[in-house]
């Protein structure tokens, strides 16, 4: 097997090899396959005339060569990266067209390929996911990435082979459907599995037991159902877990609490229910964002926030929560940037401690909150529409808000609090005779009671 060598000194080495070997850098069959693949992606560009020299010396952006030293000390050059679809001015990959196709040569002609990337290439004309990719393909593949290709349709089972070196498996915003192949659970080198925004369905079908290097697991915005996987304890490096916008149901597995490296947890808009906010959140010290909105978990907001001082975002909207908002949330979560508690059944007042969260987006709409809000007019002007309190008819603001007509956000729409009525003290100087007589009677009664106590003693 050829040994790959760094491309750092590619230009110098290229000149040396041309002089010494007097042979093309890239095999003619492999170079012809590159031209055909480029034509399948964008037939409007004359690739052969624009890049008529050896493709390893002056290739279009997105086509990358590497050189390898064979056991015989003979150096060969091969394609190691193919990236298609314009991304930005800094990564001007060959642009795709509405009629782009997926050439089968990709899976048969580049046995040294490490990265295959398609971005917005298959957007109109339907393109099928290959269903018979040879096992030999991908022995060196490290990244398989398809992003924003809505016309790419079919099952993933045909394109997932024995990728022994695969680190990133990304299919996001495509038209793929069906189950996730069991083979995914055998790709022990995976660090990222992102299969978001597709049409995947069924239960959680692949095992996580062997994926000890996994750092990102994102299955959001699909049609997965059944229970969430309960085999998380070995995922010690996982920092992002996103199952949002699916149909997972039952109880959120307690094993999620063993994810000590997790920073981002999004389980929102599934069908988890009736088990309350998970207490295991307190066991995840690195957690920075947690979103559970849209699951009817019910119950009260637990007192777990002392252990989660680094939290930046909390999404607990529409969860059928009851009871009061814990003051400890405002006391401990000084770094909070977003708090969503809207569309619940929360009661009581907004904790005074929330008045210091001056840079947070706070949504408390559509609850049963009451009393005077702790936010100042200055705070409302600063955060504007990020402070949302509507739908709580018994909330009110102090008199200071009636002066400022430009208060933005929902604070300006709340009613003024009624000041409590304090009865006037009895005036003895110049007071009425009836008041004096009432005071005298009370005084005489107290003296009588004191005398009777002394006699009885």
Automatic annotation (TrEMBL):
It comes from the Eukaryota. This is Uncharacterized protein. It comes from Pistacia atlantica. The lineage of its organism: Eukaryota, Viridiplantae, Streptophyta, Embryophyta, Tracheophyta.
């Amino acid at each position: 097997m050829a040994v790959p060598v760094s491309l750092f000194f590619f230009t110098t080495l290229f000149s040396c090899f041309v002089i010494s070997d007097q042979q093309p850098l890239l095999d003619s069959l492999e170079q012809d396959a590159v031209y055909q693949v480029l034509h399948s992606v964008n037939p409007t560009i004359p690739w052969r005339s624009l890049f008529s020299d050896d493709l390893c010396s002056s290739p279009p952006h997105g086509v990358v060569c590497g050189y390898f030293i064979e056991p015989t000390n003979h150096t060969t050059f091969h394609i190691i990266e193919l990236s298609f679809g314009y991304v930005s001015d800094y990564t001007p990959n060959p642009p795709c067209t509405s009629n782009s196709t997926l050439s089968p040569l990709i899976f048969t002609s580049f046995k040294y390929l490490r990265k295959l990337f398609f971005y917005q290439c298959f957007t109109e004309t339907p393109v099928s996911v290959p269903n018979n990719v040879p096992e030999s393909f991908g022995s060196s593949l490290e990244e398989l990435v398809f992003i924003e290709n809505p016309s790419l349709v079919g099952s993933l089972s045909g394109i997932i082979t024995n990728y022994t070196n695969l680190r990133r498996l990304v299919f996001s915003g495509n038209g793929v459907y069906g189950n996730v192949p069991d083979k995914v659970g055998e790709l022990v080198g995976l660090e990222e599995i992102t299969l978001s925004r597709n049409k995947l369905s069924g239960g959680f079908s692949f095992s996580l037991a062997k994926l000890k290097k996994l750092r990102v697991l994102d299955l959001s915005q699909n049609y997965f159902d059944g229970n969430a996987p309960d085999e998380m304890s070995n995922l010690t490096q996982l920092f992002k877990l996103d199952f949002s916008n699916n149909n997972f149901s039952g109880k959120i597995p307690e094993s999620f609490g063993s994810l000590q490296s997790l920073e981002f947890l999004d389980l929102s808009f599934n069908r988890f229910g009736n088990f309350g906010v998970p207490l295991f959140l307190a066991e995840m010290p690195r957690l920075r964002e947690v979103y559970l909105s849209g699951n009817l978990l019910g119950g009260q907001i637990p007192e777990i926030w002392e252990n989660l001082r680094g939290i930046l975002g909390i999404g607990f909207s529409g969860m059928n929560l009851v009871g009061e908002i814990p003051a400890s949330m405002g006391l401990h979560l000084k770094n909070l940037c977003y708090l969503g508690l809207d569309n619940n059944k929360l009661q009581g007042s907004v904790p005074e401690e929330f008045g210091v969260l001056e840079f947070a987006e706070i949504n408390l709409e559509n609850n049963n909150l009451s009393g005077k809000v702790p936010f100042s007019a200055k705070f409302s002007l600063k955060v504007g529409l990020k402070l949302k309190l509507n739908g709580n008819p018994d909330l009110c603001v102090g008199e200071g808000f009636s002066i400022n007509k430009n208060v933005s956000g929902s604070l300006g729409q709340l009613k003024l609090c009624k000041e409590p009525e304090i009865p006037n003290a009895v005036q003895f100087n110049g007071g009425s005779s009836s008041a004096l007589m009432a005071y005298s009677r009370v005084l005489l009664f107290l003296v009588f009671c004191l005398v009777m106590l002394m006699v009885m003693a």
